[in-house]
Amino acid sequence: MTLASSLLYAIRILFPKSSPSSSSGRKSNGERSLAGALLCIGLSLVPLVSVLVISDGMIQGITGRLIGLCSQDIAVFLDMSAWQEKYGGKITEKDCNDIAQRLSLVEGVTDAFPELDSTALAAGKSSRSGASVRAVQGDIFSANKAFASLFTVVEGSVDLVPDSSGKNKAILCKKIADDLGLHAGDSLRLICVNKTAGGSLSPRMVPFTVSGIVSSGYQELDALWVFIPLEAGLANFSPASSKLVFGLKTADSFSPELMQVKDHVIDDVFGFAGNEELEGATVWTWNDLNSAQYQNYSSTKALLLLIMLLIVLVASVNISSALVMIVMERRKEIAILKSVGGSAGGITVAFLLAGFSAGCGGVLLGIPLGLLAGVNINTIINFMEKIINFFVKFLYILFNADLSSFKGVRLLDPAFYLQDIPISVPFKELLVIAFGTLLLSLAVSAIPAVKAGREKPLDTLRKL
């Protein structure tokens, strides 16, 4: 029995002219079960592909914001106390710009931005809140491509360069601005604690004018950040309560060559490349600084995919049960084929091809539907929220509840998730899922296919 003969018999199994077990022409139970198995595999792939697309996009979106807006690709931390001991004075904005210019010339580094990070108590109109203060260059929101693309301007402008009045400007993220009740043009007071020469703590209040409000699209980041000019940060925050960091950009944050760039930076910072050593400096990559969060996201994604894969595994078992029923219904056909010279191997191959075809059909159905759902997830979530909120409002009205106390239902709370999920289609992983499903279809088809090939024609024909 040739491969072509096995293929023709597999087509006959999938598309019979008339059912071997039904004189009415209707499909047999086995044929209906095989069609149902195809549908089950397709439907089980929809959540798997959707979860893959959504989780990949969300992880990349959050990680991209952590890298681009916070840690940068490589971070060089500089000990300001060591600087003061070496040069006998506080580090200035010009010193920071000179170091940034030096680091930007390192091989593999495309740009460098100085930043002073500290904490303070932010006081607004309605309340006070702890704030993570970031003293940056005045044109950071235009010079840094990540800032320009990932931050959305909600109010005012994003210019920190002092105007003719000489007042210090500040830019707030949306969540902390809402908590403080501040808008563009309002006054903000930052209360910081500095150490005196004698070691005692001395509080200091610095006034700022809110020039703008921005949003990163991730509320966890928007809840704390306050941006002020680098010069104001160096003048008002003590080295003991703040840290100076130089964020370095590279061509690709996820490139395997990032470690080589880090080595070049280390050579420059510690004077191995012939430059003056930067006292007390340490060098870290974004993965070093955000490893716990990144591993947490990756493990959550892996767990979700494992659950979805189990659903596909259960659905694929339907192919095996459907083929068992088809073998039982076609015992007469198998016996006749064997009696006229059909081989056991040829019949086994025919049933394997039938099961494989069911898996192919499931892949062709499930992956496009899963991609369609994943790519349009933001629209789907918004639509579901509108439907849910409509019915909740209806219940409020029905039971005469106070509508003023109604708060809209959010399926994905922006306090923990991105406001809009970025779409990322991982084609390599989709190919793995497709090939894995096809191999799984072959595996579950093996037992009934081998059983069909071992059918004894004499025993079957005697019972007719």
Give a short synopsis of this structure.
The protein is of the alpha+beta class and 464 residues long. 55% of the residues lie in helices and 17% in strands.
Describe what this molecule looks like in 3D.
With 464 residues, this protein is of the alpha+beta class. It has 2 domains: 3-60 and 295-462, no CATH class; 80-280, no CATH class. The chain has 17 helices and 10 strands. A hairpin with a 5-residue loop joins strand 6 and strand 7. Helix 2 (29-71) crosses helix 14 (344-375), helix 12 packs across helix 14 and helix 12 (291-329) packs parallel to helix 16. The chain starts with a helix and ends with a helix.
Question: In terms of topology, how is this protein built?
Answer:
Layout: H1 3-14, H2 29-71, E1 74-78, H3 80-87, H4 93-104, E2 109-123, E3 128-136, H5 140-143, H6 145-150, E4 152-156, E5 169-173, H7 174-180, E6 187-195, E7 201-215, H8 219-222, E8 225-229, H9 230-236, E9 242-250, H10 258-269, E10 282-285, H11 286-289, H12 291-329, H13 331-339, H14 344-375, H15 377-398, H16 427-453, H17 457-462
